[in-house]
Each structure stands twice: as C-alpha cells, then as structure tokens.
Amino acid sequence: MKKLDKLILSSFLGPFFLTFLVVVFILLTQHMLKYFDDIVGKDLGWDILGQLLFYFAIFMTPIALPLAVLLSSLMTFGNLGEHFELTAIKSAGISLLRALLPIFGFVLLLTVFAFYSNNYFVPKAALEAYSLLWDIKQKKPALDLKQGAFYNGIPDFNIKVDKKHEDGKTIEDIIIYDHRGQTGNKKITLADSGAMYMINNERYLKLELFNGNFYFEDYTEAGGKPRAQETMSRSSFTRSEYVLDLSSFGMDRTNQSLFQGNRIMRNLNQLDDDVDSVNNRIMDTKVNAYNDSHFAFYYHLREDSIEMPSELVAFKEERDSLDEVRLLLKEQKEEEKQDSIQKLKVSTSVKKNKKSAKKSDAESSKALQRRKVAIAANNAKKNLKNGKLPKLDDTKKQRKVRRDNKPKYIYDTLSHLEIVEYLEKDSSDQLMNVIQTSLNNIRQTKSKIQSHNQSLERYVYEKNVFDIQYHKILANSIACIVMFLIGAPLGAIIKRGGLGMPVLMSIIFFIIFYVLSMTGEKWAKQDYLDPMWAIWSANLLLFPIGLFFLRQARNDARLFEADFYSVMIEKFNRWRKSGKLTTEENSN
Length: 588
Fold this sequence. Notes:
This protein is an alpha+beta fold.
C-alpha cells in the first residue's frame, strides 16, 4: 500500500468510527424513547439495561452504517479539498478515481460485513432485544410505598403509610389489610410506627410494627359453617412482624421461540421459506374459491362457470398428487402395521389351532393387495421425484356420476324459461319457498367470496411484509456503496471539512434516502408497488445522483459556488439573445 493510500485511508477511518458511534447513539436514543415509560420504575439492574441497549444498538447498524459512510467520506474529502491536499494530489498526476480507490475498497469490505450483519447478527439481536423488552413490560413496577396512599402491588395485601422518614426505613401510622383469606376487609392491622427493609437478597419485605392493634371479623364456625352473627376479635401488640414475599416483582424470561415468527427476526433463508409458504396459501385460497364457485349455482348452471387459470390448474394437480402420495404412504404404513399384528396373531394361533384353507386364501389376497398398495406408493414416489404427477382417481366422469346420483329439486332440473312457467302456474307458497332458497344461496355465495377475499388480503399482506424484509437486508448493505458515491465526490466539490456543511449535506441526503425507503415500504405493504422496486427505489434514484457528482468532481465543477451559476445564467442569456437575432435576420 502506498503512502498516499495510507494517508487517505487513515484520514477516513477516524471520522468513520466516530460518526458511526454518534449515529448509533442518536438512533438508539430516539428508538428507546418510545419504550421509556415501559422501562422506568421497574427497578432493573444495570446488567439487564446493558443487554437491552447492546442488542438495540446492533439492531440500529443497518441504518447507521450508510449514514456513517456518507458523513465520514464527505468530511474526509472536504478536509482534503479545504487544505489543498486534493489539489496537490491531482497536480501530481493522480486522478480523483485513483484517490477514491483505497476508501472504495474499504467500503466494499464494509458492504460485505453489513450484509452478514444484517442477515445473521441483526435478526438475532432483534430476537434478544424484543423478547427482553416484552419481559420488562410484563414485570411489575418496583416497590414504592407512597405517603398517604394505599399500595396494592404486593399480592393479597393492601398497605397504607402516612409518613416515611428520610432514612427510607422508618414509617409511621400504618394500616394493613390482609386479603389472604379472600373474605374482604376482615383482617386489619393498625400500628403507630414501624420499620421497613428488604431481607434475603431483596426477595422478601420485612415490616416490624410497634404499638398497634389487630382486628379480625369471623363469620364461620369451627366446622366451616356460617354463623348467624359475625364475631369480632381485637388484640393489642407492642411489636409484630410481617414478612411479605416479593417474588412477583422478579422478571421471568419468556421462551424466545414465541417471537421467532416476526419478520425482523428472520434471515434470508428463513424469509425465503416464509414467502414460499405464504404463496402456497394464496394459491390454495384461489383454488378453493374456484372450487366453491360450482356450488353457488343451480344444477343446470354448475358446468357454466369461469375456467380455472392454467397456473392454478398446475398447482392443484401438484397439490392433489402430493396429497395422494401422502395417503398412499399412510395406507402403506397402516398396512405394514396391521400385517405385523396379523403375523403375531397367526404365529400364536398356529400353536393352538390350524387355520382353514379359506382363511389362508383370504390372507394371501390381503397380502397381494398390500403389495399392490406398496408398489403404487413406490411408483408414485418415483414419478414425483422425476417430475411426473400421478393421475387422480377422482375423474370428471366419476364426479358427474356422483352429482347425478344426488337428489334434485324441481328448480334444479328445469331451464330458465321452464322455471318461470313453473312459478307462474304454481301457488304463491311455492314461489316464496323458491325465492327464499335462492336468497339463501346468494347469501352463502356472498359470504364465501368475502371470506376468500379477506384471506387473500391477509396472505398478500404477509407475503409483502416478508418480501420487504428480504430486500431490506440486501438494499441496506448496498446503500453503503451508494452513500460513498454521493459523499466522496460531494466533499471534493464542496471543499469544506469539519461539522458544518458536511453534516448539513449528509442530513439532506439521508432524509431523502429515509423518506424514499419508508414511502416504498408503505406502498409495498398496501400492495401498491412490488416490494422489490419499493425497497430498491431509494438506491436506484440516488445511484445516478452519485455518478453525476463523481463526473462533476472529476471535471472540478463548482456546483456550490455562486459564480458557477452566474456564468451559467450568462451563457443562457447569450444563447437566448443569439437565437432571437437569428430569427430576426431570417424574417428580414
């Protein structure tokens, strides 16, 4: 590596790591503010808070890396241009593209790292973070006895303290309602003063009460039968103790497998399987909708329906073939099981009695049938592996025979005109019955169609969500290269370092990138746009802008100087005036 490459790369790495940490901190703070109310007051240890912040920091890396590349590359080449180091590099005969090469190589390695991070580390971190956050939300708030207010956070107890001393231990005027018997406010303890502190590694709360009374209302006899009148007993004490269990304030960890179905916790292979599974559900729903359409009409119209598309026909044949293979395999296993049981019975019965010839013939015929089933199952397996689908037993002719054997109503066997003539001749009761039957059929058909449409909308939404996450893993990785192509040439054009203009320009382009990404994701979820084009739109729109800035930087363009635009305006005015003079001469 040449000294020039070391100089450029070292001037880039420092701002990159610094800006990356700053961006992660800003994004992490903004993200954690949403869950601030769920975390505060839960008496969480620093280990739990550290785990939560660490996992969410990893979760922010797909957004932080492109922004850090944009800002650091812009600052690096802005500093080189401001201190005329870039001018010296060009005067030495080294082109701008050659100066960009060391950082571009680092960005390529960073893109590979971003891909592996987005595909493996980020889903795992998201699973850990959101499962831990769920457990924190379910955790009870920390024990906090406030002055003059009843506290019912401890199970089966309701406690009120009128005054708490500054030492956090001494309390005065205590009232305790004991609800462990599920009998209401029947057990009451009053005390003038006391002490409150944790024991046994803060698992229990110990209350020492002084100078008080204990009241108890009893309405049951020794045998458990209710008394005619309640009795009340009172006892005084100079010192009493309560030990209250605080195990309910602990945090229980939920099984993480319950959260693994979320899209942000899946990698590319898992998302691909999810999309394939949802596609099968969509095709199943469409096939069922076409199959149900036959039952929405009367008998003489059931064959006059919309034909199923070719892709649905192929899917249905494959699905039915797989179902038939599964059925054959199941029958084969069942037959083998019955065969083993039968052999065991035969071996035990032979010792006692000899079987008749008829029974042996029957067993041989059954064995022959079992062999046929086994051969058919094996053939079906081979055909399925070779891409040949077995023919279904339930042919159209057999279905038609079964339909013909069903009982038909009078309005099932007549044509339209015959039905009208029949209704005109028949009584009004028969007419009302026919109309009511038709209305019921229409309602059932409408309900089935609505059910299919709702299922399709839900499955399409799930498919789009998984597709969005699939392409986000790839697009966020490639965004590092796109942001470098924008930041480095833009810094060479601006020729200003520091945190002024570079930060402003970085924020502008990052907002454009973020808005385009969020808009595309929203449109993809609403099925307005294909998820691939929706997620890649930000990179596709910003990539030509980066190439434009690179071309202008190679030509030493002054895009951000007022003189550049004044010269352009002057040239435009001259061109316009020359065009007017030419038209006037031609007219003369």
